Amino acid sequence: MPKMKPGDLERIGERIKRTMLLREGESRAKVIVHMGTCGIAAGARGVMKAVMDEIEERDIDDVVVTISSCAGLCSREPMITVELQGEPAVKYVDLTPEKAKKILVEHALGGKIVTEYALAAGSERSI
After folding, report:
1. Which of 45-54, 65-74, 96-105 has the lowest mean pLDDT?
2. Which residues of 3-15 are buried (b: 16+ CB within 10 A; e: fewer)?
3. How far apart are CA 24 and CA 34, in angstroms?
4. Does pTM surpass 0.90?
5. Which of 26, 53, 106, 110 falls 20 to 30 Å from 1 in CA-CA distance?
6. Which domains does the chain have, with CATH numbers?
7. What is residue 35's DSSP assignment?
8. How far is it, in rounded angstroms, from Cα 77 to Cα 48?
9. Among 70, 67, 71, 73, which Cα is nearest to 30's?
10. Continuous H helices in the chain
């Protein structure tokens, strides 16, 4: 693997700033990728990359993407939580990059819960 140069780091930093949108303010949705050690071991990095790539490809600027630690359901990782304003948060489990893209498009952008991957909504009540 070639060595990174300071310019490479600047380009990576700018890409992350554009795609992660870690800012305060109005947003359509918040997508939380659970990145505890159990999530990372189960493939959360691939899920995060898929979400970020889809946001960049579609030039989405009103979805906040962030990370959290373990949600306490290690056997169900990789997981993401989608929060829409005025709606209960929905936790999705057993994800792949393809499932994460579908959730981003259908739920975060379209407002429709993807029930086949959802574990719970709101205060962990089953859906």
Report:
1. 65-74
2. eeeeeeeeeeeee
3. 20
4. no
5. 53
6. 26-126 (3.40.30.10)
7. -
8. 12
9. 67
10. 6-20, 37-42, 44-58, 97-103
pLDDT in tens, 14-50: 766 654 444 445 688 999 999 999 999 999 999 999 9
Six-digit token pair at 26? 């109005």
Measure the CA–CA gap between 20 and 34, rounded to whole angstroms. 14
For tokens 């981003």, what's the residue?
104
Structure tokens at 125: 């009540």
DSSP bridge pairs for 51:
none
The encoded tokens of residue 88 equal: 């209960």
Q: Which two tokens stand for residue 110?
A: 């379209």
**Percent of the chain clearing pLDDT 90 (strictly above):** 62
66 vs 3 pLDDT, higher one: 66
CA–CA–CA angle 99, 30, 21 (5° rounding) = 105
Per-residue confidence (pLDDT) for residue 40, from 0 to 100: 94
